[in-house]
Every structure is written in C-alpha cells, then in structure tokens.
Amino acid sequence: MLLLFAVLFTLWLATSAMAGEFTGLVVGVLDGDTIEVLYKKLPERIRLSGIDCPEKGQPFEEKAKHATSALVIGKEVTVQMHGKDKDRHTLADVVLSDGTNVSKMLVAGGWCWWYPKYAVQNRELKRLESEARRGKRGLWADLYPVPPWEWQKWRKRP
C-alpha cells in the first residue's frame, strides 16, 4: 500500500512539473500585473497572463497595485506557467486557493486591460473587461483611459 502511494505521489509530482505549475507564497507585488512568489525558497517574478495594468506614472497605477496586493499578498497561490515574457519574467495564470483566477478578478474590477496581443483567445477576459467598462469600474471611470501599450508609445516619442 505504501509503495502504491509513493508511485502515485511521484506520478502526481511529475504531472505537475510537466504542466508547468507550482504553489508558493506571494511575497511581493511590484505593480498591478507583476508579483513575486516563493519558488524553491527564492522569489520568482511572475507576470500575470492575459492582462496589462497601468504603468508607473499612469493614472490608476497605484490603485491597480493596491487591488493586486489585496488579492494576493501573503497568500498561497498556484502558478500555472505559460513561458516567459519579453523581460524574461515567468508569464502565468495565478490562482488563489479557492480557485479564483487573479487576472480575471483584476479585469472584472476594472484595474487593467484584457491584453489581446497575448490572450487573443481568452473570451472571458474580453467579456469581463466589457462589463467593467459598462459599469465604469476602476480605471473605466476615467473619460479617456489609455492602454499601457499606447501610453508607452507616447512616452517614447521625442
């Protein structure tokens, strides 16, 4: 019986590793869409998949960061990795212990944009953003919210 348990446990661990998933404690929130989760006793920088929050200096940047902090800081989360972003940060879905997807909560609250460039197939994020816009929640209360990818282009212009 113990041998069977050991074999099943090993298979479960192997499956989790192949799926690119780990569980860890959130030890930092760098901005609305970037957090740090302990992985093998070291902080791993995680970029939340499918969303883009306001950049530093942009309206609602601090509120988005606070919304993320309220959801995750000090909590155990499951990180479902999808690869690396352009800055070599781990790109992932982050899920709370109750099954709540953090990116979906932030979009629904109006603290970020659905990022179609990297989540074109995610119709749920698109729907949640539309609902937040209609409800003028979070950054959608602004008359002219500027997506971070556009804001960065304007900042780089001479």
Structural topology:
Elements: H1 2-18, E1 21-31, E2 34-39, E3 42-48, E4 51-52, H2 61-72, E5 76-84, E6 90-96, H3 102-109, E7 113-114, H4 116-119, H5 123-134, H6 148-156
Parallel strand pairs: 3-6
Antiparallel strand pairs: 1-2, 1-5, 2-3, 4-7, 5-6
Tell me about this structure.
The chain has 158 residues and is of the alpha+beta class. It has helices at residues 2-18, 61-72, 102-109, 116-119, 123-134, 148-156; strands at residues 21-31, 34-39, 42-48, 51-52, 76-84, 90-96, 113-114. The protein has a five-stranded mixed beta barrel with strand order 1-2-3-6-5. Strands 4-7 form a two-stranded antiparallel ribbon. The longest helix has 17 residues, at 2-18. The protein is globular.
Number of helices: 6
Tell how many strands the DSSP assignment holds. Answer: 7
Whole-number average pLDDT? 87
Trace the largest sheet across and list its strands: 1-2-3-6-5
Helix percent band: 25-40%
Class computed from helices, strands and strand pairing: alpha+beta
Tell me the fraction of residues in β-strands, as a range: 25-35%
Give the SSE order as H and E letters.
HEEEEHEEHEHHH
Q: Poorly predicted ranges (pLDDT <50, ≥5 residues)? A: 3-19
**What is the terminal separation in angstroms?**
70 Å
Biggest sheet, in brief? 5 strands, mixed, barrel
General shape: globular
Structural Rg = 17 Å
